[in-house]
Structures are given as C-alpha cells and as structure tokens.
Amino acid sequence: MELRTVQQGTFAFLPPLTDEQIRDQLQWILDQGYVVSVEYTDDPSPRNLFWRMWGLPMFDVKDAAAVWLEFEACRKAFPDQYIKINGYDPIRQGQAVSFVAHWPDAGR
C-alpha cells in the first residue's frame, strides 16, 4: 500500500481510488443533488484553502461522464498537481464532500 503525505478529504486514509471508483463517487455526489467542482493545486497542505478551480462549478450536470471529462482534462493539463473533487449542497449552501482524486506521484 502506498503511503501518502496528503491526509485530507473524505478518503484520506484509504489507498488511492481507481478511475472506476472515482467515477462511482462522482455519480454518488450527483445522485445526492450536489453541485460538483474540480480544483487543483501544487500545495496540498490542509492549511491551503486556496485551490484553483478548473472551470466553473457544474450546476446542471446530472451525468458522471460529463464531470469525468472535466476531471480528465484537468489531470491531463496539470499532471504534476493535486486534484480535488468537491460536492456542494445547494440547499444547505455548503461543501458536503471533498476528496483528493489525483496525486502527482500516483503514477497515473
């Protein structure tokens, strides 16, 4: 099992998720009615609150494949950055889920 230095987010203490598991989580986030956004940074410290947003939040997206395309585009554009997926609850107006989906040293 790969030991990671980034210990934040929903799945922080699990091994890196496979692409299929990431897609499943994207669909779960959408099924909850959450709004998805993709962010990236070179400083994954939990104290770093300013990740760069990849595009705009995906308010009207209901299909995980559309979010996956944006995540893949970000991963291709910034392979040496950490990439995080967030789910915002529009009713409570707050972040409900967040996890780091790409680590630069994960060999992807």
From TrEMBL:
Single annotated GO MF: ribulose-bisphosphate carboxylase activity
Positions of the Ribulose bisphosphate carboxylase small subunit domain: 7-104
Top EC class, one word: lyase
Coiled coil: none
Record keywords: Calvin cycle, Carbon dioxide fixation, Lyase
Gene3D superfamilies with a match to the protein in the record: Ribulose bisphosphate carboxylase, small subunit
Source species, domain of life: Bacteria
EC number(s) per entry: 4.1.1.39
InterPro entries in alphabetical order: RuBisCO_ssu (IPR024681), RuBisCO_ssu_dom (IPR000894), RuBisCO_ssu_sf (IPR036385)
GO biological process: reductive pentose-phosphate cycle
Record text on subunit structure and interactions: Heterohexadecamer of 8 large and 8 small subunits.
Protein name: Ribulose bisphosphate carboxylase small chain
Species the sequence originates in: Candidatus Hydrogenisulfobacillus filiaventi
